[in-house]
Amino acid sequence: MRLEYFQMVDRIVSLDPVARTIRMEGLVPEQSPIFEGHFPGHPILPGVLMIETIAQTGGWLVLATLRFAAMPFLLQVKEAKMRSFVVPGQHLETEARLIHDGSGYAVIEGSITSDGKKVADAEIRYRVVPFPNETLRAQMLETARRIEVPEAYFHAA
Amino acid sequence: MSSTFETVAGIIADTCDIDRDKITSESHAINDLGIDSLDFLDVAFAIDKAFGIKMPLEQWTQEVNDSKVSSDEYFVLCNLCTNIDKLVAAKSA
Lengths: 157, 93
Fold this sequence. Notes:
The complex is a heterodimer of chains A (157) and B (93). Chain A is an alpha+beta fold and 157 residues long.
């Protein structure tokens, strides 16, 4: 994870658009300017970044389901729960399930676990719109390659 | 359509915190009930789930934006319910 760049997903472990599920892993860095302020003497991953982690994980699932034809933007966070602290150096696994693929929107349920213990969960809703420009789409594809989204999902079958 | 309307009106009342008595079949979801686009997506999600359909909101919005149809066609509740019934019928056909 590179928190300052909002890179919350290190690697996609599994992705199944038919089953509508995704799982990713990420390592919270030992060092980050974020921990200097959150909090001095007690560094923990901000809850908003846990939500962002769930949102990005589900977002990759939506992107793969749509074969990168449109972009999901965070619209709504429902029932978010931060169940325990996440500290520097902690390994996280995040799962998400697409529960509804609507017209112009999508809904996922996701959770973060660490050492088999759930540390956060939330329902995330996205507004799904055409990419605003080709630059963003190209950047998303480049990131998708880096985090090992299978290339089969990059384009329409 | 009447049961569809009762379901939709209940969804709107619960989702948007609108007094159920103010919701009639002639109400325009946006102009009369003041439902904004974010709340309408909540309503759409609840309707999609309740009826097992996928309302084509993008298509409807595009038609309204292109002035092909009046927004009344899709957002006055009796018309919305008629469209829902059509989608349900098409799904089970």
